[in-house]
Design brief:
359 residues, alpha/beta, two-stranded antiparallel sheet, 13% strand, globular
């Protein structure tokens, strides 16, 4: 087994490798945000390969495959000695309709629902505690996840949901009871973070953060000032920044792959692929992959503790794993910043926000 460097996960007492395995894409087809057909044996092999190469944590969620991802994580980790097992992070707050797998999941953080969800996740993961339990989305509106998104019906009016202070207190209670070791928020903004912190310390935040989606700067800065760990998700922007994605591949995505419906893969595709291509000279200088450069840029951001990176096959893990030890120099960062400006890809500050880096 390979050892990677580790970083403290905020004030939790846990330590994690700079990169973690994201288990969304392995969740299989036939649900609202599936990635098309996926071979379960390959998924299990990818997880085990990542662990063998030194990845110390896996991030999943009940809604990924409507329970399937959590069950796959359990299968992948079965038989691994306790001393070598990675930490398991999962989430709460998205509830699906078992009679309509393609319906948008509902946001529900009512105390009773949270209690049901944590017990269900413990069973599917086959563990006696969850290392990090995260609120998947703000849930003060009790409606479908699509509500408010670009793909939603504009007149959707979600019903009032559970106030943040109430659901964050439930999360703190789960931690006190030992069912979970740490608690975090995902997709919550600075105003949400402030309100939650007044109830109980926010151990972690999981925002989207990549060369294309650079909009979490304020949240990351808030966390850095309060010893709240940040684990950014989608640093490869769902495959666009791997260096292997093409316009032809986007056109050939199966109908049940959620990416077919997203602007990143349609109206914004040309700019996004141009940005990925601009990373090739940087990757060449370091003798590594475009994917590793993209993930390393995310990890360079001051305040970012780790990056969640998905893989559907073992070989994909090897494409991004070098980011765990890669250091970008000022020349690299300036070249990447210029590429962001030139291509016009994505949104948010072109500067990664690393220590000592000027905008």
């Amino acid at each position: 087994m390979t050892n990677l460097p580790t970083r403290p996960l905020g004030d939790t007492g846990l330590r994690i490798s700079p990169v973690g395995f994201g288990a969304w894409a392995i969740a299989g087809p036939d649900w609202r945000y599936g990635w098309g057909a996926q071979d379960d044996d390959e998924s299990i092999a990818a997880i085990r390969h990542a662990v063998d190469r030194g990845v110390t944590w896996i991030d999943t969620a009940p809604v990924y495959g409507l329970g399937h991802s959590e069950r796959l994580v359990a299968k992948a980790l079965s038989g691994i000695p306790e001393s070598d097992r990675p930490l398991v992070f999962t989430k709460v707050g998205l509830v699906w309709d078992p009679d309509d797998r393609l319906a948008p999941p509902r946001r529900d953080m009512s105390p009773a629902s949270v209690r049901r969800e944590v017990e269900a996740s413990l069973r599917r993961l086959e563990v006696d505690h969850i290392d990090l339990y995260q609120v998947h989305w703000p849930a003060e509106q009790h409606g479908p996840l699509d509500a408010g998104a670009e793909t939603s019906v504009r007149n959707a009016r979600p019903e009032p949901g559970t106030p943040l202070e109430e659901y964050w207190r439930v999360m703190a209670d789960l931690k006190a009871e030992g069912k979970v070791r740490a608690i975090g928020l995902s997709n919550h903004d600075v105003a949400h973070l402030e309100r939650a912190e007044a109830v109980a310390h926010v151990d972690t935040l999981q925002p989207p953060f990549s060369l294309i989606n650079r909009g979490a700067a304020a949240e990351i800065a808030w966390c850095a000032a309060r010893h709240t760990a940040v684990i950014g998700y989608s640093p490869l922007q769902s495959g666009l920044l791997t260096g292997a994605f093409t316009a032809a591949r986007a056109a050939a995505l199966p109908p049940d792959d959620w990416r077919r419906r997203h602007p990143d893969f349609t109206t914004d595709l040309r700019r996004n692929l141009a940005l990925a291509d601009a990373l090739r000279p940087v990757a060449h200088r370091h003798g590594t992959t475009v994917a590793a450069i993209a993930v390393a840029w995310t990890l360079h951001r001051h305040g970012v503790t780790g990056a969640i990176v998905g893989a559907r096959r073992p070989g994909q893990v090897d494409g991004w794993l070098p980011a765990a030890t890669l250091r970008l120099d000022p020349e690299d960062l300036a070249e990447i910043r210029a590429a962001i400006t030139h291509t016009g890809a994505g949104h948010g500050p072109a500067c990664s926000g690393g220590v000592g880096e000027s905008p």
